[in-house]
Each structure stands twice: as structure tokens, then as C-alpha cells.
Amino acid sequence: MKKINIEKAKNITLIILKGIADVLDEGYELFSYEAYKRSVYYQEGDPRRHTEWYYRQLKSIEHRGYIKINQVNKSVELTNKGRIKLIENSPDQATDGKMRMVSYDIPEPLKSKRQQLCRSLRRIGFRQLQKSLWACPFVKADEVDLITKELGLEKYVAYLIVEKSDIDDYLKNLFRDVL
Question: Which domains does the chain have, with CATH numbers?
């Protein structure tokens, strides 16, 4: 049995998701699955091998919920979960001098979703200030609403953009390694 390189699979997933996102960001509503297969077919090497490999990758990414392949109109859509994956893995460290803060009060029956939220916040660059208060200086953190919608936690989460606070020195110290 062939051993799977987890890091390589993660990179391939991100490359494919980024390619789909780039096409959609150019103003196209849908990404043509058939056009994608044709472009892969004409790459160097054995076209059947490449086509089958990319097809398996797309199916895997679809199975994990990052994309939705519409068999009727043969298109690919990036889901919120896919967009979140791209944001979490984005190297963008742009700041604007403001702090993004997330506060939540999520009931105990939704504990697993609360844990998912915390993992996603950490991956984006948020750091925990108190048990349910997180802060982040990065502009990409503005996409936190995608996470709360995906998890169905909108009514339990407050998102704030703060220009000035009485803990500015503490926040600067907390993020001194990235600011």
C-alpha cells in the first residue's frame, strides 16, 4: 500500500483551491469542471494519468466539503469551508493598525463547534486574551464571519474592529513577533 504524504496532499489541496478561487475572483460565477479537465489533459506527459490524478484530487476535495461539483452544468463552486481553508493558510500578514477581536458565549451543547471556532481563529492568527476573547491584528481576520456562518454560531459570536483600547500595550506585546 502506498504511503500518503500528508504535507504534500495539503499543499496540493491548497494549490487547487487557490486556482479555483483565483478564477472565481476574476468575476466568473462558476468554474467549469470540463474546461479544467481539458486543460489538464493537454499538460505534458501522459494526459490520461494527469486527468485521472486531478479528477481524484477534485473528488477528494469535494468529499471534504471544500468545493461543490455540480454535475448538471459541469461546474465547480468554492464552498465557505474551502474559502476558510484558504484564509487559514494564507501567508498574508497585512495590518492596518486596528485590532480585530472576537468574543463568544457558546453554550455547552455546542462545545465541539466552539472548539472548531477556536482552532480556526488560531490558524488565522488570533491569540487568546481571555477564555472567550481573542484578538488579531491582521486584515484577513475580517473573514471571521465565514467561519461563524459555516459553524452556525452567528448568534453566539461578536466580532469587533478596535482602533484604541486600554490594553494596547498588552496587545502590542502579545503580537510583537509579527508586528
Answer: 6-86 (1.10.10), 94-174 (3.30.70.240)
